[in-house]
Amino acid sequence: MTTHVTIIGAGLGGLTLARVLHLHGIPTTVYEAESSPTARAQGGLLDIHDYNGQLALQDADLMDEFRGLVLEGRQQCRVLDRDGTVLLDVADDGTGRRPEVQRGELRQMLLDSLPAGTVRWGHKVSGVRALGGGRHEVTFADGSTVATSLLVGADGAWSRVRPLLSDAVPEYVGVSIVETYLFDGDTRHPATAKAVGGGAMFAPASGKLLGAHRESGETLHCYVMLFKPLEWFAGIDFNDPASAAARIAQEFDGWAPELTALITNGDTAPVLRPANALPNEHRWDRVPGVTLLGDAAHLTASNGEGANLAMLDGAELGKALAAHPDDVEAALGEYERAMFPRSAAAATEGALFYETVFDDDAPQRLIEMFGELKER
Length: 376
Hints:
Layout: E1 5-8, H1 12-23, E2 28-31, E3 45-47, H2 53-59, H3 63-67, E4 77-80, E5 86-90, E6 100-102, H4 103-112, E7 119-120, E8 125-132, E9 135-140, E10 145-148, E11 151-153, E12 171-182, H5 185-188, H6 190-196, E13 200-205, E14 208-214, E15 220-226, H7 230-234, H8 241-250, H9 257-264, E16 271-277, E17 290-292, H10 295-298, H11 306-323, H12 328-356, H13 362-375
Parallel strand pairs: 1-2, 1-11, 2-7, 4-13, 11-17
Antiparallel strand pairs: 3-6, 4-5, 8-9, 9-10, 12-15, 12-16, 13-14, 14-15
Helix pairs in contact: 1-4, 1-11, 2-11, 6-9, 11-12
């Protein structure tokens, strides 16, 4: 295949696609808005599943490198009651199918696997337009342009490529996440570190959840999930970290202090992340010369599948293009026909999670769901 592939977005999905295409000798350029690989923090832990994310890494011939990134022990999972009582504690015995890695390290691994110059940093897309005949022109914020006969939007939730294919836009799903970090947890916050344990901790209640991951070293990454309208969060001044933390902590009044300390003792300012999603069955008619992957194609509220699906999308699209070197449209059609039902199933399952796990019997329902996942 001699067609040059233009990928917008150097996230995990776009980079996986670029890697698989590179292995097949297909020329590729990735355009990324960020100014460098270290311009922005890349988030926390990711559990990479053996039924999607790991399959993509196998196709990318990077499993050995991936295993070198795995944080041992982080597959431990605990469910706590609001008083700190441990209701479920699943140890990491080394047989788990969802090893944990740092997102930033995984992204750097993919970047390191590509030829120098594959990623063009500092290229923020300002517009995309069809030129006809399956060709498209991408315009960047600095006024430069690139024309391509094969465009892939791997540019996330607010994709600038998506409007070429679909009128759908993400909508708020009724829940937001507030993040904080505690550093040197075992040393400075021993009671909280003990409650979190060696991996992930979840303390759910009706309409809310207080959770945390133990990341590299002694870092504790807290995730507060609250089912509130955006207007409620608008009443909190997140420019005043102490005030914002205190207001979020009020939602957990009476909870064990070692749990609420994840909010009130945070070493970083609370960060609000509203959860948005595309329709579960989001799809589009085949448009020559362009397609989407990852959140650009099937954004859902966080359910543990997003990064995994994005990487699988990238690998599957790369393999389809390699299998049809003389027929790009056949490759794109094959990829989309498999991707649509796969992503719809994951989105539907994720929506069910949010509907059922935070009801009045939240802790027990979450325990049951973890048992179901372990049996898969």
